[in-house]
Amino acid sequence: MSAHIVLNTNRDKSLRRRHPWVFESAIAEVKGRAKSGDTVEVFDANGDWLGRGAFSPDSQIRVRMWTFKKEESIDNGFFLRKMDAALSLRRRLFDPTQTNAFRWIASESDGLPGVTIDVYDNVAVVQLLSAGAEKHRSKIVWAITKLLPDTHVYERSDVDVRKKEGLAPVTGVLAGNPPEQVTVKENGLSIVVDIVNGHKTGFYLDQRDSRAAAGHFAKDAHVLNCFSYTGTFSCYALAGGAASVTNVDVSQPALDLAKHHVDINHLDASKSHYVNKDVFKALRAYHEEGTQFDMVILDPPKFVDSKATLNRASRGYKDINMYGIHAVKAGGLLLTFSCSGLMPADLFQKIVADAALDAGRTIKIVGRLSQASDHPIIGSYPEGYYLKGLVCEVTD
Description:
With about 400 residues, the protein is of the alpha/beta class.
């Protein structure tokens, strides 16, 4: 018999709205014994059953809910149903002849808290970031091989958030014989994904729509791509008719792959430039030199790890945007992003507006960008919305 979680009085409202988290502070009592990842039944203070979820004794999020249906068991069939439904949605979103890399499972938003699965052609890369996901690793891999039988499976559960769940980092082959790198198609462009050593699961699929927008805006523009990583924003810009692109990144291997992307997509290498430098230092140097571009792309890594770091991160975002705005010619465009889930959209907009004031410039927001459609946001879990982007005209 599974353990029972009893909530404190008046702490059941979020679960009744099907929010998938139960915090430690909401729990009055744990009846029975529950180990990390075990399935537990959750009851309100009056003894009414609310749902069942995965227990995590080391996390402030003590239970992550699997289901609010009493008849639903957390077995192989459960994972197969959830993953089949998610796969059906993704197949409606993309033309596989043009795009064969997508997020298959977006954790809570697909009903599988702590589970992320990205598909790169015939390779599935899995991140298991919660105690419950860890507990059911074999069921998840089984469901992948049932639904996509010709797919190799690799695990990249090597991120710091696992520590909060009391879990050690894990990487390695889970099924088949995945290569270290795989070349995929995105909107017809070829992209090399390093599944073993690349960021996250190897690539930032969530920026697919933003890359396409950059290509749309880039015609005849001299483009500065900051935090360029493997240069895919720049490939879209060149494909869209950019006059030149300059990639700035602190990682030389990423810049080397950016050069390769220009080559394999048969784009004009003479229009591509590469700067191996810290972006903050590069932007300050451009400002001192008076160097400006028609379009500047700012896609920094996540600055906010916790609510405690929000103020410091806000200062970082303001600085980078101020110097980014300095680098835009009058009448040019700034495409600026925050991938920090804890950064509210209205606060991000205010930070960019304040950065413009500090730069002595005026911005006009002409577009908003967000995570691609294969990163859905379930209605009961607003935390699933994390990627904010603004397209701004910059004037004097």
